[in-house]
């Protein structure tokens, strides 16, 4: 993100106001003591930095989404748990829910992540060896993120997942 600030100059000899928009980066003018905000860095460089930063954010989010998908327990994983471990909600499900919640939070903050989010939720909802509860949460979150994509995916999602997802609404 490029941050900008306004440099407002009032001169006692003239009733005019000089206004400049400068990218954020402090530098003090040694002769006047005035603090300027990045007066020497061309705006294009700031744009390039912003693009590189945005790519980094997108790559980071893609990595988080991929790791989250890999960390979701499968039905087989849950079947290996002891009776005591499944007496309450298994820790693996709680951890997966937390990670899926992090994905949703990141998507709420940055719309440029939406295409990756759609792919994540679709993959999660369609993965047959994931628990129905997890698949339903992903399907529900997809509906909130992109209703059109949600409707296109509907024929591919089992009725049980759809039913659970409706309960979440």
The overall pLDDT, averaged over residues, is: 79
Q: Major sheet, described briefly?
A: 2 strands, antiparallel
Q: Tell me, briefly, the overall form.
A: globular
Order of SSEs: EEEEHHHHHHHH
Binned, the helix content reads 55-70%
Identify the quaternary structure here.
Answer: single chain
Report the structural category.
mainly alpha
Instruction: Count every beta strand, where a strand is a DSSP E run of 2 or more residues.
Output: 4
Low-pLDDT regions: 1-26, 35-44
Number of helical regions = 8
Strand adjacency order, main sheet:
1-2
Give the structure's gist in a few sentences.
This protein has 169 residues and is mainly alpha-helical.
Task: Explain what this protein looks like in three dimensions.
- With 169 residues, the protein is mostly helical.
- It is 60% helix and 12% strand.
- The protein contains 8 helices and 4 strands; from the N terminus they run ββββαααααααα.
- It has helices at residues 43-71, 75-79, 83-86, 91-109, 114-126, 132-145, 147-153, 159-168; strands at 4-10, 17-23, 26-28, 35-37.
- The strands form 2 sheets. The chain has a two-stranded antiparallel sheet with strand order 1-2.
- β1 (4-10) and β2 form a beta hairpin.
- α1 packs antiparallel against α4.
- The chain starts with a strand and ends with a helix.
- The model is unreliable at 1-26 and 35-44 (pLDDT under 50).
